[in-house]
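Researcher: Here's a chain I'd like modeled. Treat it as a single chain, no partners, no ligands.
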Amino acid sequence: MNKNPTSDAMATTFRAARDSARSAAKAAAHVACLYLIEANGGRGGIHETWRGEGPDSWCQMAAPGITAHILAESFGDRARVTFRALTEAEYERLKAGAEDRNACYHDEDCECDDAPWPALGELAEPGTSEVGFRNCELRGQVTRAAGSPTLDLTLDDEPVGEVATLIRLLRADR
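Model: Modeled as a single isolated chain. Structure tokens:
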């Protein structure tokens, strides 16, 4: 039996540091939700999430047409966002904005994807298509339901600042 007081003190210090880091990340996640609500013109609310309710997250921002889960594996700075019932014009605006900020700065011989987001023509039929980054990594998916004129877009792991920018782009004509 180890009765070293230094070990006990270190274990207590470790638990306190871990708990503090967890509390800080949860606080950052709530502030991230407030940031997204502000980007959405003040519309939306913060909701606690429970295990089994979507991705493992600290909390979520929910507003009409938008849900952003602040991912628990982040420090409150990354989100899984879903934009529901996008018109084709809204999808094109989000696509153009996201691709512009994910530009390729390599030479002509690079292997970056020139069109990481599906074109509207590819989305004419019902189904799900992958959305990628220029470096060919998977970013999310876009879905058209049978008989629906609108699209649902989910981006799996985005910086909260990027999500705020996309929300502002979406609201540009509202």
